[in-house]
C-alpha cells in the first residue's frame, strides 16, 4: 500500500475502544474495568497504552495532559459535591452516539442541577458561575 505524501492519517480510537478483542464487553458501561482494585486493569492514559489514549500519543500528544488529569477530577468533584443532580424528564438521557471527528452524544446531555446550601449562582456572558460561600 502506498500512502501519498501529505496525507492526513486519522487513528480510529473509537474502533479500538469498542473492539471486543481489546476490551471485554466494550458496549457495557463498566467504569470499574479501569480499577485494579475491582479486578480491572491499570491503563496509563497518558499516551503509552494505545488501548485508551484520550490525550493522543506520540509527538503530538496533548501537552496539557497532566493539568487535565488533575483539574478535570477537581471540577467534577466540585460539581458533584455542590449540586444535587436530577434527571431532566422533558429531555431524558439518550446515550445514542454519533461519530464525527470524535465520538459525540447525538443529543446533548440535559440535567437539572440544584445548588446545595452555601452555593451562590451568578450569571454573566452566557455562563452561570458558582461561588462556594
Ligand atoms: C481532560 C483534558 C484534555 C483532554 C482530554 C485533551 C485531549 C487532547 C487531544 C486528544 C489532543 C490531540 C493529540 C494528538 O493529536 O495526538 C490534544 C492536543 C493538545 N492539547 Fe489537550 N487535552 C486536555 C487538556 C488540555 C489542557 C489543559 C491544555 C493546555 C493547558 C491542552 C493543550 C493542548 C494542545 C496545545 C494540544 C495540541 C498539541 C499539538 O498539536 O502539538 N490540552 N489534547
Rough outline = extended
Helix content: 10-25%
Question: What proportion of the residues form beta strands (DSSP E)?
Answer: 15-25%
Bound molecules: protoporphyrin IX containing FE
Terminal residue distance: 62 Å
Brief description of this entry?
By secondary structure, the protein is an alpha+beta fold.
Task: Describe the fold and architecture.
It holds the Pfam family p450. The mean pLDDT is 88. A two-stranded antiparallel sheet has the order 1-4. It folds into two domains: 1-63, no CATH class; 76-133, no CATH class. The longest helix has 18 residues, at 65-82. With 133 residues, the protein is an alpha+beta fold. The radius of gyration is 19 Å and the shape is extended. It has helices spanning 13-17, 65-82; strands spanning 83-87, 97-99, 103-105, 111-115, 119-124, 127-132. The relative contact order is 0.09. It has two helices and six strands. The structure holds protoporphyrin IX containing FE (HEM).
Amino acid at each position: 500500500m502506498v500512502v501519498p505524501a501529505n496525507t492526513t492519517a486519522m487513528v480510529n480510537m473509537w474502533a479500538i475502544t469498542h473492539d471486543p478483542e481489546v476490551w471485554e464487553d466494550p458496549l457495557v458501561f463498566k467504569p470499574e474495568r479501569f480499577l485494579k482494585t475491582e479486578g480491572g486493569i491499570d491503563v496509563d492514559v497518558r499516551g503509552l497504552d494505545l488501548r485508551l489514549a484520550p490525550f493522543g500519543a506520540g509527538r503530538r500528544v496533548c501537552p496539557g495532559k497532566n493539568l487535565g488529569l488533575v483539574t478535570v477530577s477537581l471540577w467534577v468533584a466540585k460539581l458533584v459535591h455542590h449540586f444535587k443532580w436530577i434527571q431532566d424528564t422533558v429531555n431524558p438521557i439518550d446515550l445514542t452516539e454519533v461519530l464525527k471527528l470524535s465520538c459525540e452524544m447525538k443529543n446533548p446531555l440535559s440535567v437539572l442541577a440544584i445548588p446545595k446550601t452555601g452555593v451562590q449562582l451568578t450569571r454573566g456572558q452566557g455562563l452561570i458561575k458558582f461561588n462556594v460561600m
